[in-house]
Every structure is written in C-alpha cells, then in structure tokens.
Amino acid sequence: MRELLSCLPHFFRREDCVFLKVTFEEITYTEQMHHRLGALPAFKIYTTGRRYTLEGQQSFESLVAFISAKTMLLVTAAHFGQAGRNWWLVLSATVVYNDLINNHKKEIFSESKVSQSSITEGKESQLDDTLLFVGIISGRGYRHRRLAVRDAWATACQVPGVSVCRFILSDDEVTELVQEEMQEHQDIVLVHGETTYKSILLKTLFVYEYAVRHYDARFILKTDDDAFVHTRAMVQQLRLLCESPDCRRERLYMGKQCRRGKVIVTPGHRWNNEEYYNHTGLETYANYMFGGGYILSSDVAQALVHMQSKVSLKFTPIEDATIGFWVMAMDLRQIDHPKMNSNFWPCCFKALERRPGHKQASAPSFSFIQEVSGFQLDEETEAGICSDDPWIILHKLDSPSKMRYVGARVAACPQNASAAHMIPASIAPWVAKIGNPGASSVDAT
C-alpha cells in the first residue's frame, strides 16, 4: 500500500481543505473535500464530475463509511494516512476499476484482484449481521412513493440483526430534494450508471453487490417502490425454509414464477428483448420470478457478483427474465410462492364506486354532492391480509394512499403468538422436504 504523500504539496492550498487522489489500474482522478478542521461539519466530494454532500457533525468513522459507499470500495480507517489534523486517502495499487461492461455502459463495481468469495469469507464477523437485506429500486421523481413505503413498511423493516431496507437510485438521479431526503432518512444508496428502463438490471445487480459487501445477510430481496412487503411474515417464512441451522448456503430463488414466458421481438415494444433471442436462439424465457419482488439466498447473490467481476454476465433489457437466465444452470431451490404477488398488473383493489349523495343545501336544487366509496381490497387479497398464510408481497400499488392503506391494514392485524410456529400452506411442501423444520424454534421477531 502506497501513501500518496507526494500529492499533498502539489494540490494543498488551504488548511481547511483535504484533497484525495485515488489511483486505479486504468484511471486516475482527484476528489476534493471541503471541511473545517476538527468538527468536520460538511464534506463535498467531487467524483468524476458528480458532487456528493455529507452534512452535519460527522465522526471520522462516518467519513470513512461515506467515502466507501461513494467509491464502491472496501475503504477502512487503515487506508487513511494522517498529517497533523488533515486526512488523505491511501489505496492499494492493486484495486481495479472496470470502466465498461459488455454493452459499453459504465461498470458499477470496483473489484479487488482477490476473488469475491475470499472477500466475503473471513470478513463475515466484520459485517453487520442480518437475516434479510431488502433493496428497493426507486428513481428520480418518486419521493412520494418512498415516503409512503417508509410509512407502510420500510421503517418497520429496520430491525438490527433481522432485516434492513435500502432504496437504490442512480447517482444521476440525485437532486437537492433527494440529497435532503438522504440526509434525513439515511436509507438511500447510489449506483453509478445511466437512468433508463434498462438500468433496472444494473440497480438489481448493485443490490446484490452492495448487500454482500456491507452485510452478512442470509437472504436478499429485490423489490420496487410500488410494492408492499410484509417483512415480519417474510422473515418467519425464510427461517422455516432454512436447510441449515445458520441459514447459510441455502441455494434459494423464491418469488412468483413466470413459466415459459414468450420472448417479444416486436420493434418498439416496451418489453422487446431481441438481444436475448439473438444471444440464445430461444423463443421462450427460462422460468423466472416476476420482478416486483423475488429473493435470492446470499450464496447465489455472491456467485452472480463473482461471475460479473470475472467474465461479465450477459445483460438484456428485461431485468427479471435476465436474472432467471443467469441462474438457470444453478442447482437451486426455485420456490413459486403463491403469496408473493409480484406481477406487472395493478394490484388488488376493487374499483372505486361513485354514487349520488345528499343534496347540497347551499346549492341549486339540482346540485348534489357525489359520494365516492373508500378503498376496498378484492376478495382474494382481503381473505389473506391477516390470515395464518398472509400475503408477503403486494406489487403495483399505484398510489401512495393505497400503499399506506395496505400498511395500516397489516399493522392492525391481531398478533397471534403461535403463528410464528405454524407452517403456512404456501411453503408447507418445501418445509416438508427439509425434514424436521424446527418450527418450534422460530421466534416472532
């Protein structure tokens, strides 16, 4: 590891500035950080033309974590040198930054020459332990959705040692309003890349890369910001599905399965995937889980991250079908879960009814106030919302009001202490294959 002392005389201008020079195998750039000495109240980091801000009273550890998140590197305090009260970054010369992926888009990973498995193995004790990591794909202009998701379920998801949720945005989606939201909620992480419909796959792969680098998670859920996730019920069911006592190496791929989906090659179609057809010659997709919410165990996610760093996975425009394509050669437990409603059509409300109301006293005799019925779930959803086999994902809730309504309904369900020890019918065949499920040991966290 080489300390970059030679950089300081050339770049240093004032005592209240720190300049970071980061050297990679292929590119070199400089990051400039402004702060007042001692208190470190504000940082502005300029990275390849983009600016990030860290506001408020910050510890040195917060600075280290912040830079680690922004540069996508495993940065620790050991990588920093100290000159008086000024800090600069010291990185190993073996760090590699890959500029491009196979379709000439900007790479989202910064991978050490050490294999991904050796990075994660042996460092598990240094990572935050959690059973479930949830990556919520979001974007610019969807702050109203994120606020509703936090109200409905994401805030309750933040349970140390059990589950953690993060919203995923591209760094070119950061506005002043998003920066304020990041500072207030501390639950948004950024991925490098262009913001297009095809960028959903980049964000999904980033969910796995971020989760395996920052958490010792057993399972990783990818979902969207228009989906309700019943994380407490999901955690209970995942524990029942574990084949090993520590829930590691579970080989799990779970969601609502699409079987033999047709590959669309019509020009201009939203789901055109001529690239998949040309690459595989197949007119139907490998079975895959619908993109509104699906779970991979961490061993599968680590394998995908490792393959991407070594040989580059084939990217196609359809995110969920591509994930199924990537894992189809793996010997996985593929669970088609009937209570993971992650389809692409709107969920699960009756149409609002409009009917004549009472006469408006101050209006002409022909004027009436129209009454509109409140939200009502359809019969199937209503029957399962508080059952012993509840819905664990409801996707395509097309308004923040509906998201909050579902969240309130689930929160109002009576808590049955024995439910945590029961095996829901949706997963009973899979639990039976494990043998002794150990249901009596499952707690109701």
TrEMBL record:
<comment type="pathway">
    <text>Protein modification; protein glycosylation.</text>
</comment>
<keyword id="KW-0735">Signal-anchor</keyword>
<keyword id="KW-0808">Transferase</keyword>
<keyword id="KW-1133">Transmembrane helix</keyword>
<dbReference type="InterPro" id="IPR002659">
    <property type="entry name" value="Glyco_trans_31"/>
</dbReference>
<dbReference type="GO" id="GO:0000139">
    <property type="term" value="C:Golgi membrane"/>
</dbReference>
<keyword id="KW-0464">Manganese</keyword>
<keyword id="KW-0328">Glycosyltransferase</keyword>
<keyword id="KW-0812">Transmembrane</keyword>
<protein>
    <recommendedName>
        <fullName>Hexosyltransferase</fullName>
        <ecNumber>2.4.1.-</ecNumber>
    </recommendedName>
</protein>
<comment type="similarity">
    <text>Belongs to the glycosyltransferase 31 family.</text>
</comment>
<dbReference type="GO" id="GO:0016758">
    <property type="term" value="F:hexosyltransferase activity"/>
</dbReference>
<dbReference type="GO" id="GO:0006493">
    <property type="term" value="P:protein O-linked glycosylation"/>
</dbReference>
<keyword id="KW-0333">Golgi apparatus</keyword>
<keyword id="KW-0472">Membrane</keyword>
<dbReference type="Pfam" id="PF01762">
    <property type="entry name" value="Galactosyl_T"/>
</dbReference>
